[in-house]
Amino acid sequence: MKRLLLIPALVLLVLLSLGARKWKYAETPAEKARRMRWWQEARFGMFIHWGTYSLSGRSEWVKYYEKIPEEEYTKYFRHFYPDLYDPARWARLAREAGMRYAVITAKHHEGFCLWDSKYTDYKATNTPYGRDLLRPFVKAFREAGLRVGFYYSLLDWHHPQYTLDKYHPLFRNPNQAREENRHRNMKAYVEYMKNQLRELLTQFGRVDLLFLDFSFPGKNGKGRQDWHSTELLSLIRSLQPWIIINDRLDLLDFPGGWDYRTPEQVMPRGWVKHGGHRVPWETCQTITGYWGYMRDSNGWKSTRQLITMLIEAVSKGGNLLLNVGPTGRGAFPEKTVRRLKGIGRWMRYHSRSIYGCTQPPDEFKKPDNCLLTYNPQTRRLYIHVLSWPSIGRLHLEGYGGKVEYAQLLHDASEVKFTEEKGDVILHLPIRKPAVAVPVIEVFLK
Ligand code: GLC
Predict the structure, then answer these.
(1) Which domains does the chain have, with CATH numbers?
(2) Spacing, Cα 164 to ligand 1 middle (Å)
(3) Residue range 341-387, pLDDT digits in tens
(4) Ligand 1 pocket check: which of 166, 213, 284 to mutate, most ligand atoms within 8 Å of Cβ?
(5) For the chain, what percentages of helix, strand and coil (3-state, to nearest 5) are there?
């Protein structure tokens, strides 16, 4: 009975304290827009999932899926030796692909840290490789002119104080977990997180973005109370006021609790909304179907699919964070490299339809088999033609009187057009231009 009363009382207390405390980091929409500007203009970033799980070749969830006990799982730690690691090369590949920022797993769910954290032994410097992996990464990416973000896992399958939940490899059933958790102290783990975040946000210079992963409130789950999310948030913001933070702290309803939404491995039907309003968003996507290195994946997306994904995200006002899973030797898989170079070939001629672009105003209707992006600064509209018309004409319904000039983007060759009853007809070559996705740049009146 006592217990029954305790829970609602606690909930009330938390709610009261949330409401009462004036949020220190509240900002106006204009201030937020300014903070987010580089990121919204960049549109395209690289996600990197790399850890000792890369040695398994069976993805970053292998410990959980295969219920691998700690003693056995450390074989990956004991054999971690990424002799081909060359972050300058990674940065070059990202840059050439047209990416403008990168987010790397400083720590994933397995708990292994790429940097020389003072608060754990489970880190790169204690592997046979023996060196910090994060510091050279930051240096190389910065030097290549890319923005740098850290992914930091809220989950931790290695830390002895992290309590079992439904996503823990040791979780068998609620009773077993409750029993085991009596020997674990989540508060101590939260302290650990705070200490590590302090390291990440004070020892690597400016950090542009933080990707915290993830919350799963409810039965046998974890959410804001478990992580002490608001405390983490104010710690982060106090250390790096300009940082951009994703939305996985379970603070969706909390003012300032997140900066952008992160639909994962899906393409939203339209601009992502929250409370009826369009919000900044980014979809993170894999190339292979998996985040960490997956040797035997059959799910490789083609270069053209990846390019289309980028265009589609921008056409709906969002970003694409495209993932690569380096091998245990520290190299990008060759198939990944080929795709990045292919994207880069397209971006070299078409990035103008990506950077600084967004969803066009509603008056511009999407023609069949096309995706539209729009640059509000230059007032140019970009028609991405996914399926080249066989009849040499592209019909733009309701565009009459709005078009000043049009050209193919890759070679700036004029596209002639005529007007017909309020519509515009573009006259295109019969042969599809030899680029993955041809783009017509339309100069609006
Ligand atoms: C999920 C997975 C994780 C991956 C992440 C990327 O939350 O747990 O493995 O890092 O999505 O968004």
Answers:
(1) 30-353 (3.20.20.80), 370-444 (2.60.40.1180)
(2) 18
(3) 999 999 999 999 999 999 999 999 999 999 999 999 999 999 999 99
(4) 213
(5) 35, 20, 45
